[in-house]
Amino acid sequence: MRREVPLVLTAIVGITMIIAHFIPPLNILKNLFEDWFFIIAAFAIYLGILNLILINGDKIYKKQKGWPFGVVVILGFLVITVIGIFFSGGKSFQDPGTPFYYIYMNLYYPLSATMFALLAFFVASASYRAFRARNVEASMLLGAAFILMLGRVPIGYWVSAGLGHALAYAADWIMDFPQTAGQRAIMIGIALGVVSSALRVILGLERAYSAGE
Amino acid sequence: MNETTNQEKKTFWEKLLSIDRRIIFLFIAVAISVPLFFKTSLDMPVSPVVQEVYNAIDKLRAGSKVLVSFDYDPSSMPELQPMAESFFRQCFRKNLKVIIMGLWPQGPLQANIALEQVFKDEDIKAKNLQYGIDYVNLGFTAGNEVVIDRMGHDFRESYPADSRGTPLSEIPLMKGVRNYDNIDLILNLSAGYPGTMEWVQYAVDVFHVKLAAGNTAVQAPSMYPYIQTGQLAGVLGGMKGGAEYEIAIKNPAKAVSYMFSQAIAHAVICFFIIIGNIAFFSLRKKKTS
Amino acid sequence: MSGEVIGVWIGAILTLGIFSFLYKDNPFYKFSEALFVGISAGYWFVVTFWQYFVPKFWDNLALAYSELLTKGRVDYHWIYLLGGFFGVLMLLRLVPKIGWLSRWSLAFIVGTTAGLQFTRYLESNGIRQVVGTIKPLLVSGNMNATIGNIIIVVGTFCGLIYFFFSKEHKGAFGGAARVGIWFIMITFGAFFGYTVMSRMSLLIGRMDYLFGIWLGLY
To answer: What is the domain partition of chain C in residue ranges?
Structure first.
């Protein structure tokens, strides 16, 4: 029961989704399964959030190191959730002018954008310390990166003006041909991997998702 | 004397390699910030993949319907918002009808911000564009690629009404628009999943609609195989793609002005990589000798 | 002070809080980070509630209920209860004794994803890419196209050979794999260059916010 039901469920749902592509009347079932998928996905997100609250709650209760920040996490969560569910006009909660929109634009957006922007600094530092032309392959990687970093900005265009803007055109050529070829090899490899994994999962050969508690 | 000099050189390269990373951070911060104070408009060529996007829209006749999907959030605004504004400018100048939607919750909000900016232009203000007749915002619907798939059969399966709650049947622009067969071009502005790959997989390859894309620079290299097969008409890649598109429509704006900062930052990173490699090879040479 | 101005100041202070990590880890950064975690969780809770839970589950059940009340008939929308049932099973993961029931929901998710992606990846990322690689190696009168096609064909083929690990990379096969890895290195170099471009763009956006919008220096 514990193992068999998930395997049968996966097989039925997976086969239905594939066959519906070829037998259009089955689209009714496909649409239903897709809607259920999003209901379950919503609960999966709630599971993650509940887990986060429980971990931080436990940290506060046991007064572990950094527990005041656990209070910040929970308070932040509660404030935006209460405002978004009860005080922002229902389904139009994201419309400009709502309290939720205000919190989103002035708290969530600056924090989120800045977290990503931090990466710019670490990319520079990591490149300086670790990016070495140790062998032929690393040199090719470095060479391509250089041509693209300079060729795709105006500096490359100006610096190579005497050579007919060679750097800029070299960057375009690398993207159109060798990069596309390598990218395509990766893409086909991934596609074959996805297809074989999907088949293994549907046929019950892959059971990792059904292991654990 | 030589031994002392060799020791000094060794110390210098080792010191250089173990430099405090905060100094590198400072260089990057200055390289990005200082150019922002100089309002410079830089000359740069329009690359073929960007020109293809421009041409795809330029070929359309007045009254053609274009669908634009805003699949990004404010974190990707510096790269994608200039593309959105330029797209609206080109469409409205050509009197195309624009249908806006989003697969990301914040997407349609970004569209409204872009429209607000574009409507300040005198030539577009003079056109007196009407919501529901010249453009419409269908808003966000949850469902990722499922939304794309269902729209291929009937837009109303995913969007029974627009973002204001008006049923599609009551919107003049949406009369006669049932599915992708009634759309002349789709532009997807994407920062991740769901995004351009899903549009290619579910809209282009199933329903054979023409698609162009604007992507963050992280995603852009992955789109080139799709361009080469014809699944994608062209791609605007990152802030540079946005800047080139602004030049193509002859309206240099934010993206072009940001390119100066971008150029200096790239030059600084290249400089650090070169210095790091020189130091590394010098030390390696000293160790082997 | 208007709400907009207060909002810009809050955004700027939080931005500086995150940037303070660049100097060293400190309580100001930790506070900003904790706030980000809490607000992100809340944001996705609210979005999921209004955009997924309500339209896909609640509205369908409300429709079925109203059909039962007004017309006295059992509508097919009641079937969405089963979707809700699977959703609740997912939450049981937090209860150790009956946590195994969440595997049923996971199985549903895995099956749907596998089925959806099977056909799409096979066609768009597999077959169409192979078709796009079948190109003439000699285009008479067009040297650029000839060289381009050769590079595409050789690069894709050798790249795929590199990923074939069931045969030892020796001899001609090994040579082809080596050529393949050169193409893949060029691809990774392109990825790196574009990633740097993307990260710098995001930083430009934040600096523009601080200097242009918050401080109004230009």
So the answer is: 135-218
